[in-house]
Amino acid sequence: MDTRGRLIAGSHNRNELILINADENGRGDENGRIKSVKELSGQMCQICGDEVEITVDGELFVACNECAFPVCRPCYEYERREGNQACPQCKTRYKRIKGSPRVEGDEEEDDIDDLDNEFDYGNLNGLGPQEGAEAMLYSHLNSGRGYHSNASGIPALSAHETSPLSSEIPLLTYGEEDSEISSDRHALIVPPFMAHGNGIHPASFPDPSIPLQPRPMVPKKDIAVYGYGSVAWKDRMEDWKKRQNDKLQVVKHQGDGGNFGGNELDDDPDLPTMDEGRQPLSRKLPITSSKINPYRMIIILRLVILGLFFHYRILHPVNNAYGLWLTSVICEIWFAVSWILDQFPKWYPIERETYLERLSLRYEKEGKPSELASVDIFVSTVDPMKEPPLITANTVLSILAVDYPVDKVACYVSDDGAAMLTFEALSETSEFARKWVPFCKKFNIEPRAPEWYFSQKMDYLKNKVHPAFVRERRAMKREYEEFKVKINALVATAQKVPEDGWTMQDGTPWPGNNVRDHPGMIQVFLGHSDVCDVEGNELPRLIYVSREKRPGFEHHKKAGAMNALVRVSAVISNAPYLLNVDCDHYINNSKALREAMCFMMDPTSGKKVCYVQFPQRFDGIDRHDRYSNRNVVFFDINMKGLDGLQGPIYVGTGCVFRKKALYGYDAPAKKKSPSKTCNCWPKWCCLCCGSRKNTNVKTKKEKKKKSKHREASKQIHALENIEEGINEPNAEKSLNMTQMKLEKKFGQSPVFIASALLENGGVPQNVSPASLLKEAIQVISCGYEDKTEWGKEVGWIYGSVTEDILTGFKMHCHGWRSVYCIPKRPAFKGSAPINLSDRLHQVLRWALGSVEIFLSRHCPIWYGYGGGLNWLERFSYINSVVYPWTSIPLLVYCTLPAICLLTGQFIVPEISNYASLVFMALFISIAATGILEMQWGGVGIDDWWRNEQFWVIGGVSSHLFALIQGLLKVLGGVSTNFTVTSKGADDGVFSELYIFKWTSLLIPPTTLLIINIVGVVVGVSDAINNGYDSWGPLFGRLFFAFWVIMHLYPFLKGLLGKQDRMPTIILVWSILLASILTLMWVRINPFVSRDGPVLEVCGLNCD
User: Fold this and answer.
1) Catalytic residues, which ones?
2) Is residue 327 domain-shared with residue 412, that is, in the same domain?
């Protein structure tokens, strides 16, 4: 869609479409002519238009041995299974060909014995959705444009646009006529009035009343044998062998030049397996047995020790502190269940390795256009004041400079705040990209985000031998500094909003002046023919999108914005894959897309992959990472474990999706091994469980029952039935029913529906730019999703602020699997909130989303059974929504040490030797599990300990508040505001680390710190007062109290802030703490025995 770089704004509901900054000559052609469908050359199937394939024996597939009417294998098997089982041309009954399933009526054909395939029906919907999608699209958009519909309801071209009729070459000569063979010597003579099939219109069958020309062959001789022996067939086979040899040229280039000769290369049958380009594009790297086997043994041993521990704890209550004992046992049981949910999904950890060279050899052949799949990249932003435009600009620049074919990359920026600041910043970014992109690709620099490239502390001359590099780098750095000045000037200007709102350069009011009431806006900055880089090369597309917002509509925050991008990208570029990143996550590895394509485009295992998740890595975090912002334990241990099951969970950014999975389709079903049958017994033999007819009927019933769960496949199958012209009176009714189902699923946009049915992407042909423009505005309108399955079964799923977990969970329930990719160079890097308050608010938002999912119908505890979800994968999803509830027992358990110290009681009775051994074994197993996880996960002990500390800090603060807010929201209807995490630019090295922001989230951990410190002081004072015998029981209580204090130590450092000053709030809490200690001291009165003063006769007579 070429908009000549103008902003398009409009509202589908209000029937408005505005083209801003346009002249009369630049306006789009409203009556643009629709190009006719390109006719396919060569021998095509006369039913569906696909190319007739070559069999495994290297021979051409022939369905009918009587007339050799061109029919592909899927159409042949469908006609035998569902049709009249006869050739459409000569009406001869189809015979069963080896490799095809047996149907009713084949029993008397005893000349074929193929038990392996007689009931293997394969994919019932083998025909692609391309024809049905285009047919339905034409019926919606091209009415009145010179098109008409035929009897079956399929649109056909008008007479002046159809291709001229010509005689089609016989099938057995493979579509090429040999000049040395006369026309009467071919294996099959086709009447001259037969027209080409174009893949959309059903082919016209010859009139039976017109006699065919006689065939110059022996009538008794098989036509297939005759055709295969013809001269033209031999020439065709020679051409085919030549093409196969061309595909093996990679071996010649990869070899050392002395191992293979020319003749040996052509004759060696093992060469296809040696071809580097045909090898798998990735492989699994299981954890070595020396690391994983001890780890699994420790897990089993820890389970046994837990059983002994609870056996002792339950059978030995503390009578004088029964309440404390019961509370502690309940908390410990909850912790054990939580540990099981977290531990067992890590039972099969794996790593992966990709082969980028093989990807290039397979899909980027020299001298030919790249065959890599197109990728749409989504960048989401809301508030430019919290998400600085300079950070967003760096993310966009890293995307535009990615190492991928430019014609296959489209970047969509979603501005959900409709801010003119974001729009103007993108305009400046597109202009700077014309200089930045060729510089990156010329010198192959990393990373390709200019802010981080110019700020990295390294020798930029290392491995750079280009003589102009130093000069051009200095010039580019000056250009970037000027670019930063422009962006910062825009930010300064946007601080004060005019009373009348913002105005564009031509005087037009900015459509998004009212953030909550504005039309949809689309602006194509890059990607049209008028804009190239400074060297004249094409640039990737850069498209600004702001969806329509109106009062009274639910917009579903980020999930709604992502779904709007899915629809508008399907209309404009429709790539089969998409990558979504947050505005602060730039591409750190320019080959990240290629890494993902190694999994997505792998012909052996890529079809079932719904998304490829990359780990999150961060810049600007201090070396100690006191608040565990890097989250290394989760990304390097938990996610590797999930990758060995059904795949990692979706974490919201840095993820490449297959759009087919986002559209709610089921994963491709696994081909089951054929059922065992018996041909050696008579048909009446009871051991065979009835005749094959009954078996076929049963199989059809089972498939019909199973197809109820695959609604999308049924819809495409209906389109194929219509296209084949089966049962013409019912075809129009079936088309209408299918159209209604698709509109209910995807919405009332024929262009989007047609695009969604194209598995390999691509915009449907023969659609005018004016129609695409109108459809793009329609699909981002605020009421488009009403009464559809968007947010329920299609796209990002609504119902939680953490839409990422819910969306990935739904895909896994549909049978898809995901992949975890960890390149050597991190694929993406972002910024993280490093001060305590922002970090707690971030964790609060995540936990709140988990509570919302737990209280919804999509809770993994009871949702998705009977689908394709692995049971250990379900454990992981249950743990991801249950963990906020752990805050209650964790808060109680952290309070118990202080209570025990203050009251002199304990949760454990006097410990025996057996109990001591059990407790010691439990602590040793916990430590051993952590050490072995760090070993196979490659995690340092500092990161592991910081993760343990923040688990306690976040558990007693953010998780607790999230649980309360979630219950109020779901049960009480009290809504909570979505807080965008600040992504501030660096004003100094770790300057935000010491910023203290008071929030209510700080109250619970601060209280725990104070009461445990008070408990320690009181316990020690009491032991000093009571003598030596009281120190023994004190050690157990002190151990638990110090355990709590050590876990809260980073929180205490966050409260103190910088070392050279003390916040006022700390002074207040210190006074409160001193008061509590004073009162406790008076209450204890250590100078007086608990039994009162001891009076003894001193022996002196005072009288």
Assistant:
1) 416, 804
2) no
